[in-house]
Amino acid sequence: MSVSQETRKPQRRNRGRDELEVLIRARYPIVYVISWEEGRVEQHLREIASRRSKELHCWSVTTGLQKSGSPRQARSKGLADPVEALDVVIEHKEPALYLFKDFHPFMRAREGNAAVIRKLREVAMSLSDSYKSLIITSPLLDIAPELEKDVTVLDYPLPDTDDFAELLQRICRDVADNPKVTVALADQDREKLIQAALGLTLQEAENVFAKTIVQDGRLDAGDVSVVFSEKQQIIRKSGLLEYYASATDMGDVGGLDHLKEWLDKRAHAFTDRARRFGLPAPKGVLLLGVQGCGKSLCAKAVARMWNMPLLRFDMGRMFASLVGSSEENIRRAISVAESIAPVVLWADEIDKAFAGSQGSANTDGGTTARVMSTFLTWLSEKQKPVFVLATANNITQLPPELLRKGRLDEIFFVDLPNADERVQVFTIHLRKRRRDPAKFDLAQLAAAAEGFSGAEIEEAVISALYDVFYLDKELETSDLLKSVKETVPLSKTMHEGIASLRAWADGRARYASRRDDEEARRKSRKLEM
User: Fold this and answer.
1) Where would I find the beta strands (DSSP E) of 435-505?
2) Would you say the pTM of this structure is higher than 0.90?
3) Which end of the chain is more exposed for a tag (fewer CB within 10 A), N or C?
4) Which CATH number is 26's domain given?
């Protein structure tokens, strides 16, 4: 390995965490670290203190102020009091770091905290010309306005792939001598397991890896689903996003060849190999088109295809009655999605959520417009691998800002299935209901169902099954034809709207399926005259 490679590797790995050491070396007096992992923060500060020849002292309301790593002593009443503990920080003469854990309740803007807030301002003035730093760690950001100029806020990064690789290696080493445990992890399987764990804390990852071993005595690539179950707990506790356990494969989606090809090319774009190649993670895709033609079904299938969690983003949950709550809800939802990335975020029927955003100031005080602005800004600037799959039926209700390149990678138009795709849809739904498609005249059925969406074909199959069940007979082609003829498809009842949608999509969006004329050209014999 060259010298440049050796120096570059730790910089890439520790770039986020080293920001804390930079702030300490620059003599920032008070640093507020936002993290659920106070153990990791304390260990990191212990390493910094060792390198800088300083002592590390830790404070909590239950233990008082003690030197890190020393045996726990009986706390004194004074050192457990926040004001008295801060006095000790000011009076201490030697270079040192002070870690105050879960200190945020004493920093809130309320009358009972006036003395602590005042003392913190005195600490900031005292420490600015010393070799001491006060680090406050908490999972929540809660600062009184008086402290905003004295406190520097730092988001402590979650563990990266290197951290999880070390954890997994340690666990494998710990169970290596246990005859009841089998570790079957090839390099590719190990990477899948590490990618699935991204977004968890080290403690959460260690717990879920231990859970997989306890369940079946094995640690292998099949345990990815168990890791996803841990992420499901995070989503459930947030209350804003819905974890969707998808059982849909791409084989359950009829047609949409161009879209499937596009998704297949990006299936490995979230790996380390893709990043080394220079590929960014895919941002997302917008599927628009006729209702019932497989847009939502495709969203469920892509999560299973890429082996990622699927989160359903219901915009209706974002809106709240209190002023400012809706904007805060969408920021929290985005934060939760990013915290468990890589993930597929399914924004279903996004056109209904943003309908009327242009006149939002006259209807809801501009709430919809502000929520939309927050969402669009995040789409443009997001750095985490959150793949947004948005679906829409009515293009006229979508804000123009959503359609420009850069926010999403591509816009696909999902049209009514062509003849070959209708054969595929009939095949899928007959096989799903334990019928042999070879026993039916699929070409005749596809011709009779011209203009039908995939959902309408499914309903025709179900309706025919109800009829033959009532008559106590087996399903035949004639029964399906009868059900198809009795159905009036949406393409007839909403002919004008669908024609308008097709006209808009022509030249403005990529077709998700091969068009009938394209299929004809593909199959036609080429002659050289």
Assistant:
1) none
2) no
3) C
4) 3.40.50
